[in-house]
Amino acid sequence: MSPECKRATQRYQSKRQTLDAELLTEMRSIAEKRPCWGSPQVYEALRRQGREVNHKRVERLWREHGMQVPKKRHKRLRLSLGGSDNSCVRKRPEYPNHIWSYDFVTDFTERGRQLRMLCVLDEFTRESLAIEVQRSFTARQVQDVLGYLFAVRGAPEHIRSDNGPEFVAKSLRRWLDRACVKTLFVAKASPWENGYVESFNSRFRQELLDRELFLGLEDARWCVDRWRLDYNHHRPHSSLGHIPPAEFAARWAASAPGPAQPTASQAPPLQLPNELPSNHPDSLIANGT
Fold this sequence. Notes:
Pfam families: HTH_21, rve_3. By secondary structure, the chain is α/β, with parallel strands linked by helices.
């Protein structure tokens, strides 16, 4: 400092506003793509992009600029575990291909026609193994979807579901028994006992179904397939340490091989769906998982 300049005339010029503006722009860009995310998810996304930032700074900007996502009203918690022995609380997954779960989600097209979606989930890795979209499903069609998944991934030890007519059908149960897959039916009218797939269905509906208007069956299949790939490979999962399910599964396979790899004898003979041949562009065999 020169002798002519007095200290009292000097003022510190903060760079905070410039840096905050740059960070806020990145945060808004992420929030536009993921409108259901809160500040913790945005912070993890920034870190995965290589941005070194403190979580308190992200939370401050998130709060100051009113970017909070409206809180969902939670129902009252149950005081005891209760329920059946097949619930997700009593029977927990311990490794990949230990327990799968599946369930149906219903939506409608622009013209009001029904769409049914069969969601299959690996409860340990949280991977979405398949979301098959049809107008309706029979037990045989459910069997065809599972047959393809068993062929490419191996059969799980258990598969959890509710008591829907497609799942409790004798033909499907006999087929699963021949494949050495044990069924876990949750108690009736107790969706919380199938919590893994119900939680997935909630994210599926919140992030895609409530935001898209499907023009028809083909449009729904295209949108659902793109969302499923994004969910598996790009969307961080909080219960997996904020990494995508596919990355978690790859790390597990590299660090703890063993029971995660099923034997070839567990996979039943593959039977293709009657309505969707292997060369059909919307079939599972054509698109892969």
